[in-house]
Every structure is written in structure tokens, then in C-alpha cells.
């Protein structure tokens, strides 16, 4: 399934169906509360099996009346693009027993400072237990969505280029960070090593230029044979126009995309011209050193795709707060 063809709600449902989102959120719960003996019991105060170690929110245990109830608002303290609210029901299911949420804003929406994103209602101690994990998640993902929206806005409206993320993601957070890129108007590159072929410089180190087309053709054929129809694409990275030239000799159906690594706009324009003349079916992707200042010129060069690692590896978390009534 191509995640770029799905709506945001359908994309989150698809990603959650892998089990990765719940596993991540359960790890976040263990991180804050300590490992629970039996998470299915919805208990926040269970000891670890075989020990007397306390597991739970110790501060709320000793400071908060367990009968106290509250309502709270999740609020944006800075303007930005929101991502991560779709995960709140699952997060509540893992961390609480009786907290309910209502989303006021949908993922992908742009918000101003002070806007309410969601409301919570339930036991005060459970809301406090939930607070930091919720804010870390929504803040991190909204930072990625906000950064992505900044880059997407710099691409001129009359070009063919689209913005893509990379695998330069936080370990364990990839599916949610790629969801956040989609919330910001970007596109998802391959999800992992399992769904596409990207032949990089380290794969072909020492290979003679003349041998590159045959190498790619064999790799492409094997990938299509063993992937059971799940292969998204076959891509090969080049860092010279000479490497591009030999790949342009491959027959249609072997190679889908050529990644142009760290080429300047002039080189990218020449690459696009050669592609248009010899193998118009191929897509070209520009990658490496793309900044907010350079992306417009890169997008205008004739490439189809621009991948930017900074969408996920160089973001500032959006300031999100929880205000308890």
C-alpha cells in the first residue's frame, strides 16, 4: 500500500494496524511508570513481577485525592501545524482507565498561539499521569509537521517537484514521524528497508561505471521476484552525470527513480534535460544539503522529488501545554 495515496485518518489507521504505534506508546508508559506486571488489568500501581518495586505515578499517588476529577485543555503555546492527536485514544487506553478526550483540531491543521487542540475529562490523577507523554508526543510530531509545512511552502506552485522525507528518523518513532510529515504536506519515502530498493554509493563502491547498468538490472529483477508485489520502487543513487548517463540506457521497467546526490541546481537542470531526452519515464530525486533557502531553486530544476532529512532529524518540538481547569 502506498501511504501517499491515503487520507490522514486512513494513513493513521493503516500505520496503527501494524502494531508499531501501540508498542511505541506502551514503551512510553513503561518509561514513565515502570514496567507493569499486567497492562491488560489497566492498573497503574502494580509491582513488577517478583519484586516489591513500585510501578506508577508516585507523585500523584501521594498528592492527589483519587476521587478528584477534572477537565483539561491541550493548548498550542506557539503557532504551527498539528500532528499526533489521532494517537490520543490509544494513549488513553494504555495509560488511563477513565479519561475521555475530544479533539477540537484535526491533525494537519494550522493553529495559532493559544488555540485549544483537544479536551480531556476524567480522574485528576490519571490526567496528570498522562500529561507528559501526551505533550511529548504531540509536541514532537507537531514540530515535524510544522517544519515540513515550512519547506513545502517554499516549493513554487507551478513545478512538478514534491517534498519527501527520509529514513533519518528517531529509532522506534518512524511510523509516527512519517505520519507527521504527511500532516505537514510532505510525502513519505520508503517506510523501511523492506518495501523498496535504494542502491546507494556503499552498495556499488568499487563497481566500474560500465558495469552499473547490468548490476542495477539484476538487482531490480531479483527484488521484483522476491517482494510478492509489495515493492514500491527501485531507485539508484548517483553523484555524477556520467553515472546518470549509463542508467538512462536501461530499458523501461527496470529502474523507477534516480537519486541525484548533492548536485547543485545547474547540475540538476542538466540531469533533468538528459532524462527528458533519453528516458522520460524515469523520475529524478534531488537529495543532500537541501535547505529552506535552496529548495525553490532545486524544485525549479525539473526534478520530480526532493528528499529532506531535516524534516525529521533537525526539528524543534512545538510548544504544547496542558491546562487543567
Structure description:
The protein has helices spanning 8-16, 20-33, 58-63, 88-95, 124-153, 174-183, 212-226, 241-247, 265-278, 295-299, 310-313, and strands spanning 69-76, 80-81, 100-103, 110-111, 116-123, 162-164, 197-199, 234-238, 257-261, 283-287, 305-307, 320-324. Helix 2 (20-33) packs across helix 4, helix 4 runs antiparallel to helix 5 and helix 5 packs across helix 6 (174-183). Mean pLDDT is 93; it is low at 37-46. The chain has a six-stranded parallel sheet with strand order 6-11-10-9-8-7. The chain has a four-stranded antiparallel sheet with strand order 3-5-1-12, with helices on one face. Strands 2-4 form a two-stranded antiparallel ribbon. It is of the alpha/beta class and 325 residues long.
Write the layout of secondary structure elements.
Layout: H1 8-16, H2 20-33, H3 58-63, E1 69-76, E2 80-81, H4 88-95, E3 100-103, E4 110-111, E5 116-123, H5 124-153, E6 162-164, H6 174-183, E7 197-199, H7 212-226, E8 234-238, H8 241-247, E9 257-261, H9 265-278, E10 283-287, H10 295-299, E11 305-307, H11 310-313, E12 320-324
Parallel strand pairs: 6-11, 7-8, 8-9, 9-10, 10-11
Antiparallel strand pairs: 1-5, 1-12, 2-4, 3-5
Helix pairs in contact: 1-6, 2-4, 4-5, 5-6
Summarize the entry for a quick read.
This protein has helices at residues 8-16, 20-33, 58-63, 88-95, 124-153, 174-183, 212-226, 241-247, 265-278, 295-299, 310-313; strands spanning 69-76, 80-81, 100-103, 110-111, 116-123, 162-164, 197-199, 234-238, 257-261, 283-287, 305-307, 320-324. With 325 residues, the chain is an alpha/beta fold. The two termini are 43 Å apart.
